[in-house]
Design the sequence.
């Protein structure tokens, strides 16, 4: 277990995400594991180099060099293995301070301690916030330069360029990795958002498909089966009137008319059962009023004119869907402050008007939306109205708002 991945579990991890990736992820990536192993191997190799050279050269302080290298390795291993170092900012700072103190002692007894500055750069940039990390790198570089000058006794450009260039490369590497890490996180979040959105769209499409099929079945039953049974009932009633009451066929015709009437009532129950959820618990006027009260954006008012009457289910579904689509266009495209939906009942027709005071458009050249995510565009609204035998009109001009109207002829009720 390494301190590197645990360090990112803290709240300030994005600011300190250094050159060692994999911290704070669900599981370490192969790249992060390789980089951590490289850091461990680099520090171990440099410590072994410093101790080996001191022993090989029979340096006066060879024993001290070996002892300090062993102590530095022990302190480093403790920070890697102790969980608190990776979970606490204070523990991480204390660990880095301990490493720096032991490293300073190594600088005193061996000039080869200079090279330990390079792995320290990455640890400081990774575990500390960016300003503190850069400041720690600068202090470490100055300490490395001072240790080298103290041992060599000569001032050379290399004494300055090596630690300074190493620190600059470490900072550039860490900053570059942070940018890549943030970009990777943004892409990961975007992919997760796209997956979630696709799942939501699939659910919405299934729901829309179910509603569309229910509406289609209701319309087919109303336009074919129900109308046919109604016609049969009318014909049987007419035949019944032309026969004398005591005619042998009169009783059979009466029974046939009653059967047709019962089946017509059953067909109408099927149509009502296929009604969309918005119309299940109330009338069309109630559904439109709820639609207006829940609309976001502009203030929408609903009103009813004339004497309300029961409409065929396909009419109610069609008018509700057209109102939903028109209001969606108002909210998304019109930039309106007010809108009004009016349902008008007349003797032979019913009319739905949706009027807004928005920016308007030129109906002859463009429509505000061919289609949108919440409803239908103008062509679809027109097609729905014409399918029901109605008339669909749009009146608008740039800067003068928009008025959408659909008029459906009321069917003649059977006597």
Sequence:
């Amino acid at each position: 277990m390494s301190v590197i991945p645990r360090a990112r579990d803290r709240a300030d991890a994005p600011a300190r995400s250094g050159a060692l990736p994999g911290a704070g992820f669900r599981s370490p990536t192969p790249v992060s594991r390789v980089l951590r192993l490289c850091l461990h191997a680099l520090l171990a190799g440099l410590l072994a180099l410093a101790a080996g050279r001191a022993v090989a050269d029979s340096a006066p302080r060879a024993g001290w060099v070996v002892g300090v290298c062993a102590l530095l390795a022990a302190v480093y291993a403790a920070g890697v293995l102790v969980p608190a170092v990776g979970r606490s900012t204070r523990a991480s700072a204390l660990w880095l301070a301990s490493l720096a103190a032991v490293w300073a002692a190594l600088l005193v007894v061996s000039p080869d301690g200079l090279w330990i500055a390079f792995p320290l750069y990455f640890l400081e940039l990774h575990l500390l916030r960016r300003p503190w990390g850069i400041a720690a790198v600068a202090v470490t570089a100055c300490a490395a330069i001072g240790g080298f000058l103290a041992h060599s006794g000569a001032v050379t450009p290399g004494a300055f360029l090596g630690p300074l260039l190493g620190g600059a490369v470490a900072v550039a590497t860490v900053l570059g990795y942070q940018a890549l890490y943030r970009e990777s996180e943004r892409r990961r979040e975007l992919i997760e958002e796209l997956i979630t959105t696709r799942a939501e769209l699939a659910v919405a499409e299934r729901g829309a498909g179910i509603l569309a099929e229910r509406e289609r079945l209701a319309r087919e039953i109303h336009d074919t089966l129900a109308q046919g049974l109604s016609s049969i009932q009318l014909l049987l009633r007419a035949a019944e009137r032309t026969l004398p009451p005591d005619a042998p066929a009169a009783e059979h015709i009466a029974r046939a008319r009653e059967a047709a009437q019962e089946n017509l009532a059953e067909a109408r129950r099927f149509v009502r059962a296929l009604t969309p959820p918005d119309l299940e618990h109330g009338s069309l006027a109630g559904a439109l009023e709820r639609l207006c009260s829940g609309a976001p954006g502009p203030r929408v008012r609903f009103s009813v004119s004339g004497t309300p009457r029961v409409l065929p289910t396909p009419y109610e579904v069609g008018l509700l869907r057209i109102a939903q689509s028109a209001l969606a266009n108002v909210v998304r495209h019109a930039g309106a402050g007010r809108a009004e939906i009016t349902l008008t009942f007349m003797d032979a027709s019913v009319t739905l008007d949706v009027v807004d005071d928005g920016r308007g458009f030129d109906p002859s050249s463009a429509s505000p939306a061919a289609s949108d995510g919440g409803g239908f565009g103008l062509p679809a609204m027109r097609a729905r109205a014409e399918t029901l035998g109605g008339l669909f009109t749009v009146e608008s001009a740039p800067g003068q708002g928009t008025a959408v109207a659909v008029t459906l002829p009321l069917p003649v009720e059977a006597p």
Q: What stands out?
A: Residues 1-27, 367-376 have pLDDT under 50 and may be disordered.
